[in-house]
Amino acid sequence: MKVLHVEAGMHLYGGALQVVFLLRGLKARGIDCVLACPTGSAIATEAAPHATVVQMTMKGDADVALTGRLRALIREVQPDVVHLHSRRGSDIWGALAARLEGVPVVLSRRVDNPESRFVVKLKYRLYDEVVTISDGIRQVLLSEGVPPAKLHCVLSAVDTAHYRPDRSHQAWFRETFGLNEGELVIGMVAQFIARKGHSTLLDALPAVLAAHPNARVLLFGQGPLRDEISARVQGDALLTQHVQLPGFRKDLDRILPCLDVLAHPAFMEGLGVSLLQAAACGVPLVGGRAGGIPEIVQPGLNGELIEPGDTAALTAALNKLLGSSDVRQRYGQAGRAWVEQSFSIDAMVSGNLGVYGRAIARHAAR
Asked: Is residue 99 domain-shared with residue 206, that is, in the same domain?
């Protein structure tokens, strides 16, 4: 089998990282893969050991000419199926290219953003099968009228060999971020966009810091709201003392195991790769009850869930975890076990392979 994958993201965020995992797993099973991605994108380098990488211009939703470029690539590589991994225009123009070339097409849906029924009716008829990375996303698509037979939940995966409990870097971690011995660290790893809930966390911090003055907060990531969040922190003496914005980091496998709590009070979230990575590292979680987050955060087992925007609930959850090393240890151990059981790379690869088979069969029948 040969699969043409299309990923339009420039950065190696959660979705693109999942594509790399999939390519690696498919290669191990003897599947020939080709990846089309933007020129200069981070995934081009990461995917090179596992697939033939073709870099091309991808300009987003208005890039109608992408259809032609992908049609030419399809004719060249002759794939058995085309797998579209992102939006930014590749979901529409990639599907049209595959349809025009007579090749089955699969879409991976990684976000729970609602779409109008009119758009859904037109758009989703282009795909033979649709993969959702959480049941939360599947439920959104069902509510918008996508036929159940076309939807398949294949959970995202985390590399548990790479992300694991390992506090041997604790001295490096404290030196790197200027932390003192005995300080407790809350981390958040997310793009600086409104739906991730940074503002909810900042709203909760005064009460959390009153109860735990030895707490520090590290907000990792980049995005359009970073300057706004940074200005809010710098404009408050308490937050300035306790909060850092270290930017986007490529060494999260060393950082996450050193956190005491990971907070992710999102309003919308397809699944939450940073939650998976932190859980794999044995870190207790606090997440918003949104999208696929409840499929990772199990209240009373590996973390706590709050209603999105509920500052008081977030304060209580963080205080509970910061206040008990025993609870943090218990939640962390359970989180590691939960990820190993439910979010393996092997299961994700098997799930996608099954969808490819159904797409080819559906296409042949049509």
From this structure: no
Q: Among 7, 11, 6, which Cα is nearest to 223's? A: 11
The answer to whether the beta carbons of residues 137 and 109 sit under 8 Å apart is: yes
Cβ neighbour number for residue 161 with a 10 Å cutoff: 9
Q: Using CA of residue 328, residue 330, residue 334, residue 337, what is the dihedral sign? A: positive
Does residue 100 register a pLDDT over 90?
A: yes
Taken as a whole, the chain contains a residue count of 366
Whether residue 189 is predicted with pLDDT greater than 80 in this model: the reply is yes
Give pLDDT tens digits for 224-272. Answer: 999 999 999 999 999 999 999 999 999 999 999 999 999 999 999 988 8
CATH number at residue 234: 3.40.50.2000
Task: Say if residues 73 and 94 touch (Cβ distance below 8 Å).
Answer: no
Are 182 and 261 in the same domain? yes
Cβ atoms of 8 and 95 within 8 Å: the answer is: no
Residue of 136, 157, 96 lying closest to 280 (CA atoms): 157
Confidence of residue 115 (pLDDT cuts 50, 70, 90): confident
Number of domains the chain is built from: 2
Query: Are 106 and 356 contacting, i.e. CB atoms less than 8 angstroms apart?
Result: yes
